[in-house]
Design goal:
By secondary structure, this protein is α/β, with parallel strands linked by helices. The chain is 25% helix and 35% strand. The chain is built from 5 helices and 11 strands. The chain binds S-adenosylmethionine (SAM). It comes from Amycolatopsis mongoliensis.
């Protein structure tokens, strides 16, 4: 996700959508996107929950960041663009919090401003009947497994990393997955309309086979 060929199309699209205005990244993390976007001359502010992630960001750039929850925290001023990438809306584990996140984006936007979300399409079609786990990556030194709770609409991504020995390290990331149609309804509840949806940052068509999407919402 840090490779220039991944980051550059993201930065190109966001800079074009900002159209010279100020932008706000929800869950800015270590600045993977924000730092190169700011290097283009775009004024970037962030909201981020994790101090350790911010510590990494501050080693790279001095961007204004509010420490807090993207569903509720307020950054100063108004913005032409708010963006939330890398599936991170799923880190909010309830539907209510996810709707609040849309409402918080709306509160920060100028009229006509845009909220951009990058999010995976739930991969339930890969679940065979009676099974609630899917291996999403299996390669030397790394195994990724998603386990699903389809009643709560939750999944936990399990990241196993290992070397030659018998021990592995496990990182777990719980998420609430969202269907595109549900995401659009969250947008409507917060006063947005879907302006465009593509399969990637370069504008590829979103189809039934797309595994993720970049959705642009416009504040009515
Ligand atoms: C997958 S990383 C993405 C970071 C960055 N946006 C990027 O694209 O590289 C997810 C980030 O979301 C942050 N995060 C998770 N829940 C959050 C919340 N409720 N409010 C703000 N940040 C949150 C985490 O601390 C982490 O930095």
């Amino acid at each position: 996700m840090f490779a220039p060929e991944v980051v550059e199309p993201v930065v190109d699209r966001l800079a074009a959508l900002a159209a010279g205005g100020r932008v706000l990244e929800f869950a800015i993390g270590t600045g993977r996107v924000a730092v190169p976007l700011a290097a283009r001359g775009v004024s970037v502010t962030g909201i981020e929950l994790s101090e350790p992630m911010l510590g990494q960001l501050r080693k790279k750039a001095d961007l204004p960041v509010v420490v807090g929850d993207m569903a509720t925290a307020t950054a100063p001023g108004r913005y032409s663009l708010v963006y939330l990438v890398y599936n991170t809306i799923g880190n909010l584990l309830t539907q209510d919090e996810q709707v609040e996140c849309f409402r918080n984006a709306a509160r920060h936007l100028d009229p006509g401003g845009r909220f951009v979300i990058e999010l995976g399409v739930p991969e339930l079609r890969r679940l065979p009947p009676g099974q609630d786990a899917v291996v999403f990556t299996a390669e030397q030194g790394y195994l990724g497994v998603d386990t699903y709770d389809t009643v709560r609409q939750h999944l936990v991504s399990h990241h196993f990393t290992f070397g030659e020995g018998r021990q592995a390290r496990l990182g777990r990331c719980p998420q609430r997955y969202i269907w595109p149609a549900e995401l659009d309804l969250m947008g409507r509840l917060a006063g947005f309309e879907l302006e465009s949806r593509h399969a990637d940052w370069t504008g590829s068509e979103f189809t039934t086979e797309s595994s993720s999407h970049v959705s642009v919402y416009r504040r009515s």
